[in-house]
Amino acid sequence: MTEETPPTYSALPLPDRRDLADDRMLEEARGFHRLMSTRHSVRDFTDQPVPRDVIMACIAAAGLAPSGANQQPWHFVAISDPAMKARVREAAEEEERRFYDGGGGDEWLAALEPIGTNADKPHLTTAPWLIVIFAQRWGMRNGEKVKHYYVPESVGIATGMLITALHTAGLSCLTHTPNPMKFLNAMCDRPEAEKPVMILTVGHPAAHATVPAVAKKKKPLGEILTMMEGDAT
Questions:
Q1: Is position 155 within any domain?
Q2: Domain-located, residue 231
Q3: Residue 186 falls within a domain, yes or no?
Q4: In principle, which of 46, 127, 157, 178 could form an S-S bond with 92, CB 3.0–4.6 Å?
Q5: What is the number of structural domains in the chain?
Q6: What is the span of the domain harbouring residue 92?
Q7: pLDDT tens digits, the chain, 233 residues: what are they?
Q8: CB-CB contact of 39 with 167 (8 Å)
């Protein structure tokens, strides 16, 4: 946050509580798991419009994410202007061609092969919205730089919440990270303090949309979870 004076500690009573019975907690958790199991990254979108209020509501939800020292080190640029989307696509594809022409290295390219990606990114102009996510490396207070802490972690959490909000709203999205992405600062008129970390393509999937078969192969719970429980007796 940008403030004129440093904030001081002041405690407030917890404003919101959700006290659920154990069986209701499990029901809610399993319901959320079912919802998220229907989330898929797609590369084929329609140009069906999505109301700006929906995009704004999803980004507002992302802005509620926890962050290091509550500095909220993120900024979102939502783009629907066709000319600007075309500029983003042109610059992104230029970087992608360098990547796929060998800049990414054999190992990285081999890892991407089962996903079926290439340098062509038509979704950047077809989908109704692009959301560019910036990480704020520092803020300003009284004309002086204020360092932000845990920036990648904080922005990662906010991005996950944004993707979840978009899916909850019935939309599909695709994460896109052309490298380097510095061109986005000038295009989006963002300051040096901000680093572009991702482009989210947002909209409705096309009727012919597909997903890579490998994308449905998720690690089983036993591979991603370790339970360390004490003696309950």
A1: yes
A2: no
A3: yes
A4: 178
A5: 1
A6: 66-101+119-205
A7: 556 677 889 999 999 999 999 999 999 999 999 999 999 999 999 999 999 999 999 999 999 999 999 999 999 999 999 999 999 999 999 999 998 998 889 998 899 999 999 999 999 999 999 999 999 999 988 889 999 999 999 999 999 999 999 999 999 999 999 888 989 999 999 999 999 999 999 999 999 999 999 999 999 999 999 999 987 65
A8: yes
